[in-house]
């Protein structure tokens, strides 16, 4: 019998000695969380710097190594036999849950939607509805009147072009949006410049 057998709590070193004394017993070891003082920094993974040690279970910090552990030694050793090895190597498949089979039912609304979408514009209209554009136009004019700003360019059609320019500027970025109307060939955007005048765009932006 080990000299530490009757102790309730053991240090890691004592556990190491205990395991050395045991021949065939199975021992369950649990490391208790270390007692931390209020001012202790617990964010460090180890005593070394983060550059020296990163997620290394073989290099635990001192506060963990000095923590107490609980151990339970089985009274009877686990005997190895052919049945045990067979159970470990080839677990029974009889307990496996039945596989689920999913059946996709036809969606008439989705099928009709796919038939109605002929081009990217049809797809965009699903999100930029006429009702939404009208509400955006009305609220923009209301804001312009409150700020004493001109709103003659705030129309549903101009708003659609304005939002399109915002989308284009999301993936075709320039240091300034004004450059889309620049005459410089390295930044000029023909699609934008022919769709809306720069003054009209800036007025809607305000």
TrEMBL record:
Lineage: Eukaryota, Metazoa, Ecdysozoa, Arthropoda, Crustacea
Disordered, as annotated region: 32-60, 75-103
Biased segments, Acidic residues type: 39-53, 76-86
A molecular function (GO) term: sequence-specific DNA binding
Annotated PiggyBac transposable element-derived protein domain residues: 119-206
Protein name: PiggyBac transposable element-derived protein domain-containing protein
């Amino acid at each position: 019998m080990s000299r530490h057998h009757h102790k309730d709590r053991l240090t890691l070193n004592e556990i190491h000695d205990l395991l050395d004394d045991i021949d065939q017993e199975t021992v369950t070891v649990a490391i208790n969380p270390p007692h931390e003082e209020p001012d202790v920094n617990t964010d460090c993974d180890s005593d070394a710097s983060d550059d020296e040690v990163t997620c290394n279970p073989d290099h635990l910090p001192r506060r963990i190594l000095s923590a107490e552990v609980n151990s339970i030694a089985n009274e009877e050793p686990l005997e190895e036999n052919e049945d045990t090895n067979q159970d470990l190597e080839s677990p029974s498949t009889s307990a496996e849950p039945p596989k689920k089979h999913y059946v996709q039912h036809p969606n008439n609304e989705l099928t009709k939607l796919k038939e109605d979408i002929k081009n990217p514009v049809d797809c965009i209209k699903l999100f930029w509805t006429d009702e939404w554009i009208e509400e955006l136009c009305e609220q923009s004019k209301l804001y312009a009147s409150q700020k004493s700003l001109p709103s003659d360019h705030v129309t549903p059609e101009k708003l659609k072009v304005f939002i399109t320019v915002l989308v284009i500027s999301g993936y075709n970025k320039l240091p300034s949006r004004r450059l889309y109307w620049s005459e410089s060939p390295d930044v000029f955007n023909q699609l934008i410049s022919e769709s809306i005048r720069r003054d009209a765009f800036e007025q809607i932006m305000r």
